[in-house]
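Sequence in, structure out.
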Amino acid sequence: MPAGPHVPTVDLTSCDREPIHVLGAVQPFGFLMAVSPDWIVTRVSDNAPDWLGRSVASMLGTPLLSVIDGEAVHLLRGHLQTLRGPDAVDRVFGVRLLPGGALFDVALHMSGASVVIEAEPSAPEHLSAGNLVRNMVSRLRQTKDFEPLCREATRQMRALIGFDRVMLYRFAADGSGAVIAESVRSGLDRYLGLHYPASDIPKQARALYERSWLRIIADVESPGIPVRPARDPDGEPLDLSLSTLRAVSPIHLEYLRNMGVAASLSVSVLRNGRLWGLFACHHMEPRHISLERRTGAELFGQMFSWILESREREVEAAQEARSRAIHNRLMGALASGGTSLEGLAEFLDELAVIVPCDGIGLWVNGEITLQGATPTREEFTGLVRFLNRTAASRAYATDEIGRVHEPGRDFTERAAGMLAVPVSRTPRDFLVFFRREVSRTVTWAGNPEKPAIPGPNGVRLTPRKSFEAWREVVHGRSLPFTEVELRTAEALRVTLLEVILRLTDSAEKERKGAQERQELLIAELNHRVRNILNLIRGVVTQSRVGSGTAEEFAEVVGARIQALARAHDQITTTNWGPGSLRDLLLLEAGAYLGAKADRVVLAGTDVLLEPQAFSTLALVIHELMTNSAKYGALSGLHGRVDVSWARDALDYLVIRWCESGGPPVRAPTRRGFGTTLIERSIPYELKGEAEIRYELSGVEARFTIPPALVRAAPPAPPRAPAPAVAPAPARFEGTVLVVEDNMIIALEAEEVLIALGAEAVDLAGTTREALRLIEAAPPDRAILDVNLGSETSVTVARRLTELGIPYVFATGYGESFRIPPDLGAVPVVRKPYDAEALRAAFG
């Protein structure tokens, strides 16, 4: 079993401690010396005198030049310069350490401030590691798929080192591992497919494997050779984490003996600098191979790591390319369409392709959308609460929801694993991919629940002695989410945030523009309200003249006020589509001038104005029209206004206003908001021109509108012939419910409805009161004011829809009110409404 190197004096129950210090002990097939930065010998292994002919005491504290040959020191100093990085190790082969002495293979590395020199006798193999590994790698490149690649790698490694068994051992995310490929001599048990718990190779050992590519144990029965002194003057041991000779823990040696292994060698397999797995090599007899051959094995392990990483990257790149193509199409649709987070629900099918899953859930502003195999809405709500405790800046993945979220054990058959993508910070919104449970059988090398038991050393551990196959059926887990899928989810998270930020930025620009327009409109509103109040007072006063009964007076006043409301509503009824210039002029004249409207003479081919130009020009025409009615040509009995328009040579629309026949005109002595609006709004808002002259015979004005804001109007449709006989007006029957928070308007509506034949009218000012009246006695029809102050009447509308009771909405918002889709097509009447509008709305 490929168990990791353990530390003799470190408590193995606390394997998370860093850094890892290994107290001095080396294997007897070589010796070790450590020298200070000024090349004074500070530590020596007890077996160094066997090769150097000097006692440990005579070597400690002396220059290295007095211990080994000067040429060897010069060579080692030169190789020390090639070390790059904190974990670098360099090797020199065939070095003569003593004049006329034997040849040694030497390994060099830094341990803190010390230079560690390890030497072992050279083996007369004349091995060319580079050529040998190149041939081995060429065989690997001929394999096509993952499993053949791993099998060939173990076969090549076994041929290189001559061990009885070579296994390729792969780590799982939880630290456990499994043998995925094996090359073994006949007569030995096979470990292929066996799983081993994480405690067999603790986290501390895995950290060592990431730093040092290769580790050999030549003979599990050989005693460790101590290094003198054990600690420096500060009480610190020599860190031998990178040592090629380092002895291993008695616990690990016992572990190998329990498996019947006499010699062991392991070579790390790294991916992206992290431990992916090991070549775990066992021999049933003691076996030592030279440093040069071990270097070849290490080089082969590195080449295999790069080939494996390259193969996996090719597969991942293809998968990422497919996901990216779908991802880009989805994001393009979201961004170009200005879709908010709520709009993600329309793209769940596309999202499910980006990250393969069995179900998908979306939580946006408390609204839940579920598709496929997922938890219920209540279970999903609890899951979102759990996710709110995770980090907001990254995706969260688990293949076992029940392990991290206890209620998740109740829905493992529908959703055992999840990948949650946070798509906002405040409030926390989530896109969650779910995977169903995948039950599978895992064969362990012994019971993973009892890998070791406390031994005679107290808190130290004794390795387990049983490696018999132990099968476990795993429930409650899904297929894990791969690194590619996690990266894809992270890219999706970032892109969604970018889209949202883009939409937010666009909304912010629009908000600023709207705020500027709002400030202008507020000033206009203040001015307009004063004019409207004066106008209404005038309407009431003038209507009283010639009116007969009170009913006739009320009818005249109501008709004129209704005309005034229609004119103001003209600014919004186009729903920000192009509007007719001729209709604008006619409606403004009719609304504010009444009988004088025929004295406004229009000349020109009708054109359509873009929304921005239409709303701006409506304010200007309104101001000109009302000023003319109060002070200008239309204030007298015989005056008139000629309005003409045409395109000039540069395709600008030129509008001329000319008053005549009225009282003499004088320029205003005070420049109020109205005058400013006429002179400055078109140049400022539309980049056009405005000119007004106060001639004695009447006001004259000239305006130009840029071509980009003007369209040709379609030909007017032919008028439908009037019906020969008008149908009899329909009359209301039964009870009508009026939901209106303004008492005066509610009473006005009651009078209109009684006049239309309603037997009874119930009035409600809140949704609560309306629902109470509906439950007590359902009405025959209803009129619902959209805005009830702090609430809307949509709740009442839904209840009426359930009961099949006809109703209409009443609103002062014009076309800006949008009926919720679930209510279907509902008639809308604009305030102030009259009998004809209500009669038409109810059909």
